[in-house]
Amino acid sequence: MMWKKTLTDDELRFTQKDIMLKLLSTIDERGWPHITMISCMGAKRNGEFIWGQFSQGRSKKYVRENSKQGFYIMNSSISIPIKFIHGKINLKRIEDEGENIETFSKIPLLRYNTYLNCWRAYINDIVAVSPFRKISLLGMGKGILAGTIAKGGINDEDSEDKLSNWAYNLINSALSFKFICYLDPSDGYPLIIPCLQLRAANKSTLIFPKSQFKDELNEIPLNSHIAVSVHNFEAISHLINGRLVEYKKSRGITVGIVEIDEIYNPMPPVPGVIYPKRKPRPKVTSFDL
Predict the structure, then answer these.
(1) Which of 133, 154, 170 is the last residue of a domain?
(2) Less packed terminus of the chain by CB within 10 Å, N or C?
């Protein structure tokens, strides 16, 4: 795919719409990609790409330590055709007051929100951006069918129950949207691509056929870490980190095999790592200083 440095007027307006799925990718301290849903996000005519903060999370920490980021903006899934723009950005500065924060605070999502308002803006340079891209409904259907067939041929006798039943069903639902983030081997930026054909073969393994966006999937190096973000129509999401360990044939279909290393719950009331399970803290019985 040919990248470019600037957005057309239509693409610029597309990034500024409110009711969209907007994702930000960052890189954690281990060098693993991380995906966050960011409601306040968009490009400006001066070539800057801005996103706003109204809650504290890991992505805000990661971007201060590594300025390389990626973004993905997609129209509503009930809109036909489903189209998106994705790209690479680099942090330039952080603002705690000013016009950008005021603009984000007036969007419908936050305008009447007394408790959570935008209080910080992250100003970025656009490194590379795609033109409009479309998700083919035909390709989506073929991918879902291929993934469903292939997952039945993956041996799960020795698999560990890393995913909960709820998460397993969320990933395998035909109504959920899945996205993969990987580090582009050419420059190290975390790039997000849609991968609706991805399935959970068992509770420790994810698989995906190359039915859509094959060129990007082919760029992912074997044994590299990827992040998988899963979303449904009720704004429920899940984040999974794992390694692309191999490609193999299952029931005649070649699929990528991803072994799950970590599962992160980005949802309130308690966001954080839920696998591997952390040891419980010892009970406090003495309050003497």
Answers:
(1) 133
(2) C
**Chain position carrying tokens 């605070």:** 105
The DSSP-derived string for 197-230 is: T-EESSSSEEEEESSS-HHHHHHSPTT-EEEEEE
User: 200 forms bridges with which residues in the sheet?
Assistant: 206
Q: Which domain holds residue 76?
A: 9-133
In a domain, 2, yes or no: no
| Residue 99 identity (one-letter amino acid) | E
Same domain for 27 and 78, yes or no, is yes
CB contact set of 197 (below 8 Å; sequence gap of 6+): 140, 142, 143, 144, 146, 147, 178, 208, 209, 211, 212
Evaluate whether residue 284 is within a structural domain: no
- Of 172, 170, 169, the C-alpha closest to 151 is 172
Residues 152 and 264 in one domain: yes
Q: Are residues 230 and 143 in the same domain?
A: yes
**Residue ending a domain, choose from 133, 157, 181:** 133
Structurally, the chain folds into a number of domains equal to: 2
Place of tokens 């399935």: 199
pLDDT of the chain, 289 residues: tens digit per residue: 789 999 999 999 999 998 889 999 999 999 999 999 998 999 998 889 999 987 778 899 999 999 999 999 999 756 678 999 999 999 999 999 988 888 887 777 666 665 567 889 999 999 999 999 999 888 888 998 999 999 888 877 778 899 999 999 999 998 899 999 999 999 999 999 999 999 999 999 999 999 999 999 999 999 999 999 999 888 789 999 999 999 999 999 999 999 999 999 888 777 889 999 877 767 777 777 6
